[in-house]
Amino acid sequence: MFSIRTFWNDLRINKTMLLVSLVLFVIGIIAGIWLAAPLGQYLESQLEQLRGVTEKLQQSNNVELSYFIFIFFNNVIKSILIIYLGVFLGIIPVIFLVMNGMMIGFLVYSRSMEGVDVFTLVVKGLLPHGIIEIPAILIAAAYGLKFGKLMLDSITTWDSAARYRLKTERRQFIRSTITASFWIVIMLIVAAGIESTITYWLVRS
Predict the structure, then answer these.
(1) Where are the transmembrane segments (predicted)?
(2) Measured distance CA(148)–CA(158) in Å, rounded
(3) How many angstroms separate the CA atoms of 70 and 82, rounded?
(4) Closest of 191, 192, 180 to residue 3, by C-alpha
(5) What pLDDT digit, counting tens, does each position of 136-153 carry?
(6) What is the domain count for the chain?
(7) Rounded CA gap, 73 and 77, in Å?
């Protein structure tokens, strides 16, 4: 059930929603750049909250461990919630993807306007852990979107045979979310480890 092959096969089955997740995330990034002026104050306030958390973590006795614990649990809780809150017709995963994309787009754009080298920001601050963290989040959101689609199909399908097939598909899908959750957690452990050490050291340097 938890084999990497099972997970990979499930991803192949869910590849359409993975693509949708990626598109929504990219739309969010573009929106974060284009709407930097009208939404800048709100997005900056979100970044300010994150800075506040960062400052508190830096006061701990073991900064790297504190970062790891915070990043890991923050990402895992959000990712698992996004999968299962997709039951509400996939609305929450859509919002989550667009908002996270907007935060990244706005961060890169606003810092470039302040004279920060974008290439250095991306390579040092986003790329090391983002290579694993972003795909994990996109996968979680894709499962949430799939859950939403299945629920929407259940609402709009009246044929008894089709409804039975949907019931079977829904049961299989819910089983697949357990496998997905396991591997997403593994990916986020690695991402948190990188972000709390390599990314942290690179940014400080």
Answers:
(1) 16-37, 57-74, 81-106, 126-145, 180-203
(2) 17
(3) 18
(4) 180
(5) 999 999 999 999 999 999
(6) 1
(7) 6
